[in-house]
Amino acid sequence: CRRSALPRQRDPATTTPPRGPRARPSRQAPDSGSAPPPPTPRRGRSQSGFLQRRGARGVFWSRGLEEQVPPGFSEAQAAAWLEAARGARVVALERGGCGRSSNRLARFADGTRACVRYGINPEQIQGEALSYYLARLLGLQRHVPPLALARVEARGAQWAQVQEELRAAHWTEGSVVSLTRWLPNLTDVVVPAPWRSEDGRLRPLPGCRGELANLSQAELVDLVQWTDLILFDYLTANFDRLVSNLFSLQWDPRVMQRATSNLHRGPGGALVFLDNEAGLVHGYRVAGMWDKYNEPLLQSVCVFRERTARRVLELHRGQDAAARLLRLYRRHEPRFPELAALADPHAQLLQRRLDFLAKHILHCKAKYGRRDLGLGYG
Ligand SMILES: Nc1ncnc2c1ncn2[C@@H]1O[C@H](COP(=O)(O)OP(=O)(O)O)[C@@H](O)[C@H]1O
Ligand SMILES: [Mg+2]
To answer: Region (Disordered): which ranges (predicted)?
Structure first.
């Protein structure tokens, strides 16, 4: 089973911990010229045949397998949350249960609980909100908890009953915070076997026939979700999940056997991509530090959820990803104008990452896939 190598050497530029201060401006993202060269089309019969039996059609997971992915958050739940969170009056605001000390667990008048995320830096909430809407644009919202924005206003009706707690939180008046429903019974998740490695190397998902062949149906259903996660984290340049594990391999050879940060399994069984504040803004600013992990990780995946691949190819063809993202964001989030939108260089970087990903998908299709995407590619 061929493996994609990952950098192992300790590079001073990469020794900043994931949450550390920004060390240097981002370098250029991989432009389309650095995408894998288009290989000579081959039918890849044995690969397709193998994956067919193991739950994939060409480079796509089979419909049967996709249908077994737990539903996660629905569109209706997202709409209901936006409605509920906006009108809610906070009656309790506690420390604990929602991560770092600047976050709070809130209780609304109707008993609903929510995690309130406060950004030390405004780009954290901006990245969280933009990542949420990018997930919706890509059709991945089932994995990302619905999010609504709120404004910290000591005199506003929303916070009237928690004045003292608000003072104790030391949140700056007027700042924008995010509200997500508090999710009960989240459990930890370890990276699946095809990416687990003690030698700092990645194993390409479709090449390791033996490994896939030994997986149970439940493990394959997990892999379907992981392939979406890896695409999402590549697009948003989110270093604060699997990529930070890969980075830590330098001094912690067992890190891949530990829980992945900012990833849980929800009570219904679907993977929940929590805490996306590193995505799109902070992540783009430091993409140069992390892309040596992000790119091989992305290239280790050659099986995709068909709908996700279609969305990516549409956004590649349209060359209008940032505009579509902002339209969606503006349509659903009335506080959209209170946070900065995606800056132009970041909007261009999003498009370049989509282009890079689209080329990778087409490269996989040419190498392994037999089905036409029906979009005029390949
Ligand atoms: N919406 C939520 N529902 C339930 N638990 C949550 C929620 N958000 C965060 N948590 C809990 O808090 C932990 C840290 O959350 P995270 O959002 O990653 O915060 P931080 O900013 O500290 O990284 C999570 O691993 C989870 O246990
Ligand atoms: Mg976190």
So the answer is: 1-52
Q: Which residue, judged by its Cα, is nearest atom 17 of ligand 1?
A: 275
Q: What is the pLDDT of residues 193-203, one digit of tens each?
A: 888 766 656 66
- Residue 236 contacts residue 229 (beta carbons within 8 Å): no
Task: Map out the domains of the chain with their CATH numbers.
Answer: 56-71+185-368 (no CATH), 75-181 (3.30.200)
pLDDT at 211: 55
Query: Which ligand is the nearest neighbour of the Cα of 238?
Result: 2
How many Å apart are CA 285 and CA 346, to the nearest integer? 8
Q: Which ligand is nearest to the CA of 112?
A: 1
Query: Position of tokens 């019969």?
Result: 45
Looking at ligand 1, which atom is closest to the CA of residue 114? 1
Q: What is the pLDDT of residue 199?
A: 61
What does pTM read for this prediction? 0.86
Residue 194: Cβ within 10 Å count: 22
Ligand 1, atom 23: nearest CA belongs to which residue?
A: 99
Give the residue, out of 19, 100, 115, 239, with the most ligand 1 atoms within 8 A of its beta carbon, to mutate for a pocket test.
115
pLDDT for 90 beyond 60: yes
Selection from 90, 84, 82 nearest residue 158 by Cα = 90
- At 22 the pLDDT is 31
